[in-house]
Amino acid sequence: MNGELRLAVFICGDGRHGKRCGGSAIVASPRGMEAGVIAVAFDELKVSMSLAEPAAFPVAEKVLLAAVIVASLGVFAWRLSPIARNVLRSKKDTDFSLRPVGARVWKFFWEVLCQAKVIEQRPLPGLAHAFVFWGFLAFALVTLNHIAVGFGHGFLQYAGWFGTFYVMFAAVWALLVAVSIAGLFIRRFVVRPRWLGAEVSVESGVIAGLIFLLMATYLAALFVDDGGGAALGLWWVHTLVLLVFLPIIPGTKHLHLVLSPLTVFLKRPEFSQLPKLEGDDDFGLVAGKDLTQLIALQAYSCVECGRCTEHCPASTTGKVLNPKEIVLGVRSYLNTEGPGSEVALLDGAQPALSMEAAFECTTCGACEFQCPVGVQHLPVLIGLRRGAVNTGAWEDKYGTKLFLALEKQGNSLGMSSTERDKFIAKQEFPIFDGSQEYCLWLGCMGSYDPKGREIVSDFARVMRALGTQFGVLKKEKCTGDPARRLGNDLLFGDLAEQGLKAFAMAGVKKIVTICPHCVRTMATDWLEYGVAPEIEHHSEFMARHAHLLPQQKGESIVYHDPCYLGRYQDVYDEPRAVVATAGELVEAERHRERSFCCGAGGGLAFLGEESGERVSHVRAKELIATGAQTIGTACPFCNSMFRDALGAVGGEAPPQLLDIAQLAARGLAMQTNDRDGKPGEN
Amino acid sequence: MSSNVLVVLETKGAGWHRMSFEALAAAQKLSNELGMSCSAVVLGEGAAIAPLAAELATKKLNGVWAVGDSLLAEYTADGWVAALQQLIVETKPKFVVLPHTYQVRDFAPALATRMGEVLIGDVTAIEVADAQSGPFFVRQWMQGKLNAEYRHRSEGGVCFLSVQAGSFRADAVAPGSAEVKTFAPKLDAAKIRTKPGEPFREAAQTVDLSTAAVIVSVGRGIGEQDNLKLVEDLASALGAELAASRPICDAGWLPMERQVGSSGQTVAPKLYLAVGISGAIQHLVGMKGAKTVVAINKDADAPIFEVADIGVVGDLFEVVPAITKAIRG
Amino acid sequence: MKIVVAVKQVPERDAVVRVAADGRSVDESDLAWTMNEPDAYALEEALQLKERAGDGEVVVLCAGPERVQSTLREALAKGADRAVHVVTPEDGDNALMCRDTLDVARLLADAVKGESPDLVLTGLQSDDLGAGQTGVVMAELLGVPHATLVLHVELAGAGIKVKRELEDGWMQHVEMPLPALLTIQSGGNRLRYATLMGIKKARQKEMREAPAAAAAKRVDEVLKVSPPTRVKQTEMLTGSADEIAAKLVEKLRFEVKVL
Q: What is the CATH number of the domain that holds C75?
């Protein structure tokens, strides 16, 4: 290789061909290989395979360089130190453990190094971002060498194969970065998606410009002579851009460059993992003193991309809550009040941190799931609620009613437990006595809600048809899900302890239920008080037996992923397997991980009227828009929300609304009728 | 004039409290079955109670006491306790029967206490097994989950009892004639410690369904806004508040404040008449406190029938006007 | 202002109650207990009075066996300052359930006298026996004026002015000097829920046990307790619209008693 190559560059407004082009591809090819058809320029240009370097610096210049570097690093450290101090001085996360390390390493590899989440959730800008990130990694060596050259100790030997390779390797990345950053710049300042915020961030523009300049100066050095004035100029511009860039990082969202790899590695391993309250003065997030190091680190890591807001059912239906503003509110609180402050977090100096906003969250977890930098919104939002509820600061007619109902009646609907007794007797559900394989947990909806009862009855039919032995508990109390999500630790703890005791007394080994909220709460949230018996959602049970369920024909069914089954428990395929036995599965625009909430979670089903548009209506319209004949649900709360919503927005002939248990039971009923020679019902 | 049963009647405005004659019927029954004499007493300012006492003189009674005093012009517990205590000491009844009204609940326990007795309150039935062991009285425990039979056992003392609204039929009061006597209690203004104000109604800014005794509630089955007139008529015939399930308020046919359910009001009336309401759980949780639920719905499988005490499966457009007509009689 | 709130511990509202072996009382084994709801409103009114006044003391008082301490602790968690527990035995003649209204009121009145409060509040009636008399009898025993069915209390000069409920949606203000006793109607306030912070603070608060006097001879006597024969089940009315209407009106008049 003699150090020649052709570069095919794709540049906007290239004069020679008079063409305008979108500008985002670059191909570097070795000699002899023709660039692609879109290549338009520089195909005759010969460049040096080595990067032009300035001639050796005189001592004065070296001193100057050292001074600028020290100044830059100094300003960087000076600006970073209050942030580091705020994080380090925040309350320790007493429950923190590095284990499981393997999972953390994997998350780091997948989410940081592979940029998987960024790309998955917003493919185009995600890819552009990934190119910038990977480009930066590729540039680490180049940058070190660049500074070393200034002191006369450049270590990349361009004569050698590695140096030659690396220069070109970096050049490819430089082009990718330059093009990507230009694209991102256009997106932010021209397209302007509203998730990025109403205000144009000047600082983002400056940063984009600096990154572009870094790449440009690097690439330009490929075209100039070694040791010449141009090389010197380019070297210094590149250096200065770098040294200006560095101190800008802290105090801006670009701090995520430094913090987010750490944040992703250190984040709590479980989804919506709520720390245990410690000691007599811990009531949740009441004031700055309660903000933990993880929360502070995450708040400073926020890159303000607005993915959380974009997917938030509250933000997108006209509520006050904006998850991004919550995180930025915490950051701003730390900056103004500092960690350890006694100033109230809610309804205090930060307008974003309002009681109203905190209690509009459906805890659907779309924000936490989406966040590319490891911010975990739910522990913060629920933490704020815990602070407000555990101290009695939250006063809400409906909330109080719910808590008193849970306290007195032991169910979230405030119904008399005798109503459940009657239902069990009517359905002839056997009482669990230790001889049956499963304890069928009814939950509040399955015990008291007419529609929930239909679902439970149908699921019981399926279990009976499959020959599975089950029994129900004589008495059930709520698992405490709404109390947990609304931040009432006293009530939740009482209910969890009573629930664990009830299962232990009855000798239950395996539980199955129609309610994903019950599954999550028992399996995960109860852990603070003890280990519940093995529990599964009825979708998992039925999917295991899907081959025994009769195949039904024809009907198109759109399946709605409940937040507490999907994002919370990663169960996506099992309910779909059940739906597939009942008809043709159709997907809504937002499905699986990106499913949109029904509006019921987080205790909101009990909190009275929403402001703005109803979340359930938005989702129902989306499900109707698929044109499916039936909406399949897997959560009695979703079902109840959609039942109302279909009445309001379903028009003349709304789709049928059935739980997956009802879909399965329908097939079994048809099969029985066919066998008995009776006409099929339903 | 000494009687074995004394019934204390309550006035309201210039007339009777509606439960007074129910108490009178109970007292007549008790005195009949025990073979005792029965007198009635009415308290108030002298001139005001004279016509009421005269009305009582047409009932089957052994005497009517008109206890008049200017200090009894308006009700106070201290005034009532003092006046009745004096009358009881004077006439020595064995039983004192009262209607279980708010007013009786305010003074009767104090009256009984002053005489070393206990009021057997809110009685739903009076049974006389045999004259030897005396009558026993049925009252409810545990919100009506149990019936308890009570007997008075202090020898020589007075047995105080108050009867529950609707337990005895006012139209069962036997007519007759009786002599009206006046009784002048010795009352001391200084010993009346409370100063009552004029009764008033709260300015009805928002509808408070939570205190309504009777509610007629309408749901989607009503079909169109114009049909609301049907249930409005029924509500006015029943003296009921009008309420609705969420779809009706969502549609703007009735104001949001009339919505019963998890996102609306929680109610606990004596009667909840649900018209064309299927009974979604969001609605049921708001009305589960109702004592009696009547449901009218065309769908026999509607979940509302699960919680209803009385159900009508039928066309509300026929049934509702018929009920309105039957009530208006 | 010093306020004593007398509360009762009663079976939970939806408890399945069984008649005890003696046929004259409720089987207390296997019951879940809670604070009588009107008493919870009395406590709420007392706490709000104290909060409005800016100072004062709320003492919560309850008679019963050991188990009532959970109700007292709940009251402390909601904000009462101190608790007095009048200890009565679980069963036997001296048990709370075996005393008549006069005797129960006497137990409470004796405990109140030791406190010399400005105001005594209690619920309008209990959810279990429903006599609705204890407060008024206490007032008589204490020799203080009273008002029943009170929804709201405010200070007026040296005394108080209360808003009480009359029938059919009417209200009335009544003024009286202090000390006084009021029985509180449910629904006048919004109840507060017990909080974690309240429970933690309650652990530091005083709970004094006071001995109960021996029971006096009952004035009345409970002969028999039994479940009512009528079981609640949906009765479907059928016939023509007019027939249905006639049947319904009959029921509304004589069973539901609203006409």
A: 3.40.50.620
